[in-house]
Amino acid sequence: MNKISLAWFDVWIFFAITFVGDYNFSEFPMFYIVWVTMIVYRVLTNLTLKSYEIATQMFIFALYTPALYNFFNDYGISYVDIQSYHSMFMSVLYVNIFPIVYRALNNNKALYPILSIFIALFIANLIQGEGRTNIVFGPNVQYKIIGVTFLFSIICIIKNDLKKAYIPILYILSSYLLLKTGSRAALFIIFVNTVIFYQYYLTLLRYSRVMKFMLMVAFFAALYILLPILIENFGRVFYFSMENGSISVRFDMIINSLIFFERDVVSILFGLGAGNEIVGSYPHNLIIEALVHHGLIFTSVLLLLGVHALRVVYKYKYKYTHFKPLVILLIPMAIGSLFSGKFNDNYSVISLLTYVAVYSIFLQKK
Q1: Least crowded by CB within 10 Å, which of 44, 60, 290, 357?
Q2: Percent helix, strand and coil across the chain, each to the nearest 5
Q3: Position 57 pLDDT exceeds 80
Q4: Is the pLDDT of residue 318 over 60?
Q5: Is residue 61 over pLDDT 70?
Q6: Computed from CA positions of residues 240, 246, 249, 254, in that sequence, does the dihedral angle turn out positive or negative?
Q7: What is the mean pLDDT of the chain?
Q8: Which value, to the nearest 10 degrees, does the dihedral of the CA atoms of residues 175, 328, 352, 309 take?
Q9: Do residues 335 and 140 touch, judged by C-beta distance below 8 A?
Q10: Can you give the pLDDT at residue 211?
Q11: Model confidence at 280, in pLDDT bands (50, 70, 90)?
Q12: CA dihedral in degrees (321, 324, 326, 331; nearest 10)?
C-alpha cells in the first residue's frame, strides 16, 4: 500500500475509533466493529503488536477489575447502565490504535485527509447556517473532533516539514468552528490551541524574543477589540452563569458527588457502579464518574497516571518520543472529558494515560 493510501486509512480509522463512542448497531456497540476492522488493517499493513501495547492493556484491565464487581451488581438494572461498562473493554482495545496514529503523524501525506476533515466540517457549518453545530455528531463531540484535527495537522506539518503557511489558516478556521459549537469547553481547547500555535509556529519562524513579544501583544490587543463582536455572535460560549441549565446541572453533579463519601468504606473504595442514585450513569465529568462508579482506588490511580503523563512529557520536552505527540493530540479529549461525555465517549483518555506510563518504563530500559 502506498503512502497516500496509508495516510487516508490511518487517519480515518483513528478518527472512527476515537469518536464512534457509544454509537450502537442493533444495541451492539459500533466500537467493536471498528476495532476488528482496525486489527485486520494492521495485519494487512504489517503493523505488528508491540510488547508495550500488551503490557498497557494488561494494566488497564487490572485497573478495571474492581468494576467487574459493580457490573454484576448492576446486571439487569437497565440497558443504559450495562452499556456504561463497555468502556472497560473499549479502554483496553483502544490502545491498539496508537501505532497507527504514530505512523500517520510520520507520513507527510496525512495532511490531505486532515484537510478534508476541516473542509467537511466547514461545509457542514455552511449548510446548517445559524445555531450550534449539530450535524452527525452533537456539539459536545464536535469540539473534540475539531480540537484533535487541528493538533493533528500542526504536529504533522512540523514533523514532516510541510508548508508552515497552513498553520495560521487552520488555527483561525479551527477557532471559528470551535466557537460555532456553542460549547464552553471549546474555549479551553481554543486556549490550548493558541498556546501550542504560539509555541511551535513562532519557534519555526525563528523570530527574536522582542518580535515574539510584540506579536503576542498584538494578538491580545486584537482579541480585546474583537471580543464584543465574538460575544454578540457566539454568546453562548461566553455565558457562564448558574442561571444557565447546562452549567447548573454540572455544578449539581459536583455537589451530589460529595454525598458519595458518606457511604460505607467498601463503597468508597470500589464505587457504586453505573446504577447508582447519586449521579446516575452520566455525571458529565470523567473524574466524578470514576469516583462514584469505580471508587477511590480507581480514581486515585487515574489521577496519578495523569500527573505522571505530564511529568514524563515535561521530562522529555526537548527530546522527541513516541508518546509525546499522542499526548498533545488527545488534549482536547482530556479537556472534553471534564465537561461532557462519559467513559463510553472518553475511553481514549484512560488508554492514553496508561500507555504513556507503560511506554515510559520501556523507554527507560532502552
Answers
A1: 44
A2: 75, 0, 25
A3: yes
A4: no
A5: yes
A6: negative
A7: 80
A8: -130
A9: no
A10: 73
A11: low
A12: 180
Q: Considering only CA atoms, which of 323, 330, 328 is closest in space to residue 349?
A: 330
Over residues 121-157, the pLDDT tens digits come to 888 777 766 655 556 667 778 889 999 999 999 888 8
Of the candidates 304, 31, 302, the residue with the CA atom closest to the CA atom of residue 293 = 302
CB neighbourhood size of 72 (10 A): 10
Contact at 8 Å (CB) between 193 and 175?
Answer: yes
Residue 289's pLDDT band (boundaries 50, 70, 90)? confident
Task: Spell out the residues 6+ positions from residue 185 whose beta carbon is closer than 8 angstroms to its own.
Answer: 140, 143, 335, 336, 338, 339, 340
For residue 294, give the DSSP letter. Answer: I
In DSSP notation, 5-53 reads HHHHHHHHHHHHHHH-TT-EETTEEHHHHHHHHHHHHHHHTT-PPPHHH
| Pairwise CA distance, residues 304 & 155, whole Å | 27
**Number of CB atoms found within 10 A of residue 24's CB:** 14
326: Cβ contacts below 8 Å, ≥ 6 apart: 98, 101, 102, 352, 355, 356
pLDDT at 319 over 70: no
Supply 193's cell numbers: 490551541
Asked whether the beta carbons of 362 and 51 are under 8 A apart, the reply is: yes
For the entire predicted model, the pTM comes to 0.85
- Residues 161 and 322: their CA atoms lie apart, in Å, by 18
- Quote the CA–CA distance of 43 and 31 in Å, as a whole number: 19
Cell numbers standing for residue 230: 465574538
The residue with cell 447519586 is 278
Q: Look-up: residue for cell 463512542? A: 21
